[in-house]
Amino acid sequence: MAFPTSAAPHRPVRVTVIWHGLPAYAARLLRSVADAPAVELTVIGTESPADPEYLQRLIGRPVHWIEKCSAAELRRIAAAPTDLCLRTGWGFPECNALAATARANGARVCMMIDNRWRADLRQWLGGLYFRVRWRGGMDYAWVPGESATVLCGHFGIPRDRVVTGLYGGDAAVFHPAAAPRPERIGFVGQHIRRKGLDVLLNAFSRLRSVAPHYELHLYGAGDLQPLAQGQDGVQCHPFAEPEAIAAAMRTFRIFVMPSRDDNWPLALHEAALSGCALVATDAVGNAAEFITAANGAIVPAGDAVALCGALRRLTAWDDRRFREAEAESVRRAEPYGPWRWREAFFRLCRMALDAGADARGASIVGAGSAAP
């Protein structure tokens, strides 16, 4: 892909990525730019739940693991000439120190932010803290979609420095199946209270009286997992690689995201790409981007009765209605994914190069005016 402007850089743009808990989906996204001749990519990660060798194969580049590198080696990597530093992990001192080193050596820093706008007291106060603690140490923000864009505005980041398209499932991996889907509801995520697994299990138990043939398939792990084990109609599966999750999603008629608080869960986008009908709560930051009356429902968070009611309506759909929902889910999901991530990545590269050129021009002008 070319840069968004006609003027290409005379050398590869140097990009350092600092990704806390580097996940498999991030490795896939990074792969989409790793082989670009216009990019010189350095990847720094903290310990990931995925296999490190698997991640490095996905990216096609070595990953410098914070836990395995010496402090001196990490400082050397971060201090190398860099045009753009993309970073997550603002709650982790190691990530903060590396980003600060890169910025001190001339890099433009872009914070990757997926928090959704909740308009609660914590965020109103957090906006003040952000302006004092973080605003001076970053130049751009990269966010998933509209909700996080609103949040960045509250945090004092100008709209023209906010780029969307941070997350997205891969349509080459997640796509609908040609075969008919069994009567199956799916959930993928941590088995914890924030993800609303207890609410989902309550709702599914109620649903069984009117839709006894439906099964609930759970993928993940967490401290609420014992609630699911042994419940009638519920099947538990461990976390799996994306290819296995994609195969499972092609068997779900309905995908559920019952979270009490969720910023931009990638699994909802992956389920939309897979053509599932979708049910999510109003506490899911990307629900409005992927769910309409044509392909699912949005219900109040923490309300098992409302969740059961939505599932009951969807399980009553006939095959034609599910095919219409599949088409709507895929249509809503298509604008997100690696291609959009790649496009946003190159836009940020161009912004960083232009800002660097402006800064160099200003210093030259300043030096010229001071000359005798």
Which structural class matches the secondary elements? alpha/beta
Number of domains: 2
CATH superfamily of the largest domain: Glycogen Phosphorylase B
Radius of gyration: 22 Å
Strand content: 15-25%
Please give the count of helices. Answer: 14
Mean pLDDT: 89
User: N-to-C SSE series?
Assistant: EHEHEHEHEHEHEEHEHEHEHEHEHHH
> Within the CATH hierarchy, at the fold level, what is the topology of the largest domain?
Rossmann fold
Query: Order of strands side by side in the largest beta sheet?
Result: 3-2-1-4-5-6-7
Overall spatial form:
elongated
The oligomerization state is: single chain
Helical proportion, percent range: 40-55%
For the record, the CATH class of the largest domain is Alpha Beta
Can you name the CATH architecture of the largest domain? 3-Layer(aba) Sandwich
Indicate the low-confidence ranges by residue numbers: 4-8, 361-372
